[in-house]
Specification:
This protein is mainly α. The protein contains seven helices and two strands; from the N terminus they run H-E-H-H-H-H-H-H-E.
């Protein structure tokens, strides 16, 4: 009688791989987005309208002095033109987030003096990115844009499908 031996190391690795794949597919189906493997863009709906709306108060208080009520106040500070979107084309969304969170918050050196400067939170910065995407006509999604750097690095700013 022949006996069969099973290599438990390979079997366990295979089970772990299949389990991870099924979990990734389940999460993708739940969020309505592809998995966080760098394979999605702002065209896939990475924010909610509620999140963009929530940013209005922060924008009015911290941003409108330079960018105006409609994000298009001054020539060098316009946030709603093809020139603006082309500046970010192909870059990870973390770059725009960091520009807002680090460079635009609480009067960094070289910035004009604001009447009410304060450091915004990471969540407020994510909400402001959502508002900018919304104003530029990018589609909303089913989940809010995360303020987590690792997740923001996985989203590319692409204004059209390639």
């Amino acid at each position: 009688m022949a006996t069969t031996t099973i290599n438990t190391g390979k079997t366990a690795a295979g089970v772990a791989f299949v389990t991870a794949l099924l979990l990734a597919l389940a999460l993708s189906a739940q969020t309505g987005k592809p998995t966080l493997d760098g394979g999605y863009t702002i065209l896939d709906g990475v924010y909610t309208v509620q999140q963009a709306e929530r940013a209005r108060a922060v924008y009015a208080d911290q941003c409108s002095e330079c960018h105006g009520r409609d994000l298009a106040a001054y020539e060098n500070h316009i946030l709603t033109t093809n020139e603006f979107t082309s500046d970010w084309e192909g870059l990870p969304l973390i770059d725009l987030f960091d520009k807002i969170y680090i460079n635009m918050s609480a009067n960094p050196p070289g910035r004009l003096r604001m009447s009410k400067p304060r450091q915004i939170t990471r969540q407020e910065a994510a909400d402001l990115v959502a508002m900018i995407l919304w104003f530029n006509g990018f589609p909303e999604g089913k989940t809010e844009l995360s303020p987590k750097p690792g997740e923001l690095r996985q989203i590319r700013f692409e204004s059209h499908r390639h």
